[in-house]
Amino acid sequence: MKLTTLTQITVDGVVQGNGGRNENRSGGFERGGWARPYFHPESAAYVGEVFARADAFLFGRRTYDLFAGYWGVQELGSGPIADSMNTRPKYVASTTMTEAGWADTTVLSGDLAEAVRELKAKPGGELQVHGSGTLVQWLLANDLIDELNLLVFPVIVGQGARLFPGNGPDLALDLVQSRVFPQGVVLQTYRAAGKPQYAAD
Fold first, then answer.
1. d(Cα 105, Cα 89) in Å, to the nearest integer?
2. Every domain of the chain and the residues it spans
3. In this predicted structure, what is the pLDDT of residue 97?
4. How many whole angstroms separate alpha carbon 185 and alpha carbon 155?
5. Distance (Å, rounded) from C-alpha 149 to C-alpha 111?
6. What does the pLDDT look like over 116-163, one tens digit per residue?
7. Choosing a second label site near 70 at 20 to 30 A (CA), which of 3, 90, 170, 197?
């Protein structure tokens, strides 16, 4: 399977609390809910299409708990996101979770890099990561992402957890697709392209 990510992100790189005002207030974050006002039926339909083509999902612990409590309790037929997540295998990377209540979920522990490589070696189309900013950082640092999809929202939040740390690994990217949705949301699809080239002087 190809490991792909879809991340909702602000212009200043924030990924925390995109969905709701009180979704994630850790670290004193008070500006949640920044994504929803910019969604348009066209961008919402795109997100649904992405979920519908998933063969399996990989989550970090915080996103897993959030999704299980919201999408995991919805009836089949509720829409492409709920239907996909409630009928496809789910994997959660956690060192503290021992059992998962959401059906068809496997907890990955031990050597996470090896576990992810084993998942990628399975037949299928896409192993998708949604949200899970800390996990995405780790996957990037370990060269495990095949395709990085960023939905960039036209807002500067000014606080909160960012996808790219202040002192992280460097990585060149090839832009393979871009698309502008109504209300200013921009899709950028990248593939890793080795190390960046820097000017000689």
1. 6
2. 15-180
3. 85
4. 10
5. 26
6. 999 999 999 999 999 999 999 999 999 999 999 999 999 999 999 999
7. 3
